[in-house]
């Protein structure tokens, strides 16, 4: 993680999602797998910065983003990811690109809610923002054992100051980039949901 010391990962994340948002707002609305998976890969270090509470999410997220990056070599757009799996009747199969896309989307949504809560919450503790983000996005899909382990891990979260130091940001610069990600990621997340819902695939599995 040494490269985080000289770079500004939050700025890169915000810029990448602004580009995806611009694509969604354009006439084509065809989001390509390659830029999508690249933008998602920039989010990966954030899970690592949150410590043991989100270790499950980091490992799962990184593996699934990698799968989408590999898929981008032969599949052009997110629409095609779903349509290919529908043709093969493999949408809900473990390891399918569609299933992985849905899981990656949840990771993006968790970070969006986390940033939203960090912006709204005073003080140096991340426990409140992280707990709310987990409860809203991941908890409904997890069994009791994982929820219990995450709750225990919440006590090992870094402070907000420690997180910002890892990300090479101060309070005001981080707030700007977090707000930028929150705004740009929302339509991207909605776009992915819409791809599933318009094909009557559902998003709660």
Automatic annotation (TrEMBL):
| Highest taxon of source | Eukaryota
Gene Ontology molecular function: ceramide 1-phosphate binding; ceramide 1-phosphate transfer activity
The text of the family note is:
Belongs to the GLTP family.
The protein depicted here goes by the name: GLYCOLIPID TRANSFER PROTEIN-RELATED
Alphabetized UniProt keyword annotations: Lipid transport, Transport
SUPFAM superfamilies associated with the record: Glycolipid transfer protein, GLTP
Glycolipid transfer protein domain: residues covered: 31-169
